[in-house]
Write a structure and sequence with these properties.
Elements (H helix, E strand, L loop, with lengths): L20 H20 L2 H15 L9 H24 L8 H7 L7 H13 L2 H12 L4 H8 L3 H22 L2
């Protein structure tokens, strides 16, 4: 009679860590995008929410921890970002529609000249490719695919450019004192 095989209760987790933010981004962006797409059902929201996850996580997550810990943290941030998205999207109960109230509430806000000037200064300080990707994505509301096509790069390259451009812009914004 043979002895039964022991049951494995614990899984050995690697203590490897990411070498850089680019490595962490590349390893997790598709996983988080698929999660967001599965929850929202549309590409635009999934892309935007994935970018929000990384923007929220960048200042707080440490790269000296294990890959599993980084993935767990990104998943927690993704849940929070998704919850906030649904709160913004579905947080209002509508039983009767008053067209005047809707028009007033959802009208575009008056542009603030100080913010527009600040955006112009930051964009002017960016390298051309960073400025182009941010202009296409956020000022012209192009999808990542459309922006990639217009810039003549792959979608993956456009995602990396957007990520790096946002990081660079955030650094300029912080050093600008604004």
């Amino acid at each position: 009679m043979t002895a039964p095989k022991p049951v494995r209760l614990l899984k050995l987790v690697s203590q490897a860590s990411y070498g850089s933010w680019e490595d962490a981004y590349s390893d997790n962006v598709e996983r988080l995008y698929r999660l967001m797409f599965a929850r929202t059902g549309n590409r635009q929201d999934a892309e935007d929410l994935t970018a929000e996850v990384f923007l929220a996580a960048v200042p707080r997550v440490r790269l000296d921890v294990s890959i599993g810990e980084v993935r767990g943290y990104l998943l927690s941030v993704a849940r929070t970002v998704l919850a906030e998205h649904w709160r913004r999207t579905l947080g209002r109960q509508v039983t009767e529609i008053d067209l005047e109230t809707v028009a007033d509430e959802y009208a575009a806000p008056d542009p603030r000249p100080d913010k527009a000037e600040q955006v112009r200064r930051v964009l002017d300080a960016l390298p051309e490719r960073y400025r182009t990707i941010l202009r296409l994505r956020f000022l012209e509301s192009a999808t990542i695919r459309e922006a990639a096509r217009q810039m003549g790069v792959s979608i993956a390259n456009a995602k990396v450019l957007q990520y790096r451009a946002l990081r660079h812009a955030a650094g300029l914004f912080d050093s600008d004192g604004s």
